[in-house]
Amino acid sequence: MIKYANFVISSPDVAQCPSGLIAGSKPAEQRYIPEYAFIGRSNVGKSSLINALCHNPKLAKTSQKPGKTLLINHFLIDNKWHLVDLPGYGYAQAGQTQREKLRRMIERYCLLRQELTNMFVLVDCRLEPQKIDLEFMNWLGENGIPFSIVFTKADKLGKDRLASNIDIYKRQLMETWEELPPIFITSAEKNTGTEELLAYIESINATL
Fold it and tell me: For 49, 86, 148, 168, which has the most beta carbons within 10 A of its beta carbon?
């Protein structure tokens, strides 16, 4: 369970993100604060899930209008790791210039941020596999960026329909992937899956 979640900074580019380097008494003892980023298509429920994880309904800004997150937002969790709220992708009403700017921002963060430990890709469980999500996951895999899939809004479906939708997603992924990434099923409304997500993060931190 998260005890403290503090906003650190909003950055327009990875170059302005906070330094996660922890200096040791010797160069060999230097290490980075692990960083876990959350991303997904606009209106996937990213901010609501972050707030549920941190037990703070006002931590990440939520809105009925998609595309509200336009910067790289860092939150320090229990003085141990950074949670990063990345801009959503695929917001159709955003202009071409803005979409391209966000794409470059996201790609630069993914490729250049040494502190990035795992990317959580959020997917709306109510929808069939979306091309934009699959393409982004494939891009992460091609660039060797560790990621997990987080299905959101699980409370909006019955148990059987939820299981069926996730099974369809898994089968489509297996057409191009030899092994599936870790998968989590969540609901910000019911607080489903938040403990499992945090336990996964802690298990990674324990190995660093």
Answer: 49
